[in-house]
Design a protein that fits this description.
Strand 7 and strand 8 form a beta hairpin. Helix 1 runs antiparallel to helix 2. 32% of the residues lie in helices and 19% in strands. A 3-stranded antiparallel sheet has the order 3-8-7, with helices on one face. The chain has a 3-stranded antiparallel sheet with strand order 4-5-6. Mean pLDDT is 82; it is low at 72-105. It is of the alpha+beta class.
Length: 225
């Protein structure tokens, strides 16, 4: 298991396998940001069959190894997003993930995210690549693959999801593929959240923009009437 994990890290960091030791830094410029960590997360899930949130916070290979090899696949995460809980800032209350609970706060909040299109991997089969299948719904993958520049549209959707997570922390622990951005009949894009395979609209406003070089998205939480 350790050898497989080292191989994954060496490949993603383009590093000599022999240099991947306990002190090997994961916080290099090459692996900064949530997108880079998501690639690492996808590779570990695919190659080792382990889901571990420490992938997003570990600073060294030693920390990553301790966290990943100490967990079996899905041991700390339920497959259903209905079981996810998030702690609200400045309180000691653990709030169950619920669309209704999101509307309880009246303060306006927003989130924004920007990514370079070139940071999204170009692969032979987007339907089978672990990064894309972990990050996007089948509806999103189908839509993007119909476009002239699929990666540009994947980037815009990634930014929208990251902006949503920044806008409201209840979505921070949610799997990316369970958050879906859709636009139908020329209407403005909207979010949907999947629980047990059932999509529910997310009442947040979202705006995306993209070029062949860069994508950006902003999300704003509606204020209660």
């Amino acid at each position: 298991m350790d050898d497989k994990l080292k191989q994954v890290v060496a490949e993603l960091f383009e590093a000599d396998l022999n240099k991947v030791n306990a002190d090997f830094l994961l916080s290099t410029r090459r692996m900064q940001g949530s997108l880079a960590r998501a690639k690492l997360d996808a590779a570990i899930r695919h190659r080792l069959g382990v889901k571990c949130r420490a992938v997003y916070s570990a600073k060294t290979y030693g920390e990553l190894k301790k966290a990943v090899l100490g967990e079996s696949s899905g041991s700390d995460e339920a497959d259903s997003s209905a079981s996810i809980v998030a702690t609200v800032t400045n309180t000691d209350v653990s709030v169950p993930f619920s669309e209704n609970s999101i509307g309880s706060a009246t303060a306006l909040s927003c989130g924004i995210d920007v990514e370079m299109v070139e940071n999204f991997p170009e692969v032979d089969d987007y339907w089978k690549d672990s990064f894309y299948t972990n990050s996007f719904s089948s509806v999103e993958i189908a839509y993007c693959l119909l476009q002239e520049n699929p990666r540009m549209h994947f980037a815009a959707r990634w930014c929208a999801k990251e902006a949503l997570k920044k806008c409201h922390q209840l979505y921070l622990p949610e799997e990316m593929k369970n958050i879906e951005l859709v636009s139908e009949d020329g209407a403005p894009p909207i979010f949907r959240h999947y629980q047990s395979g059932i999509p529910t609209p997310i009442p947040f406003a979202v705006s995306i923009s993209h070029t062949p070089l860069m994508a950006v998205a902003m999300v704003v939480k509606h204020v209660n009437a």
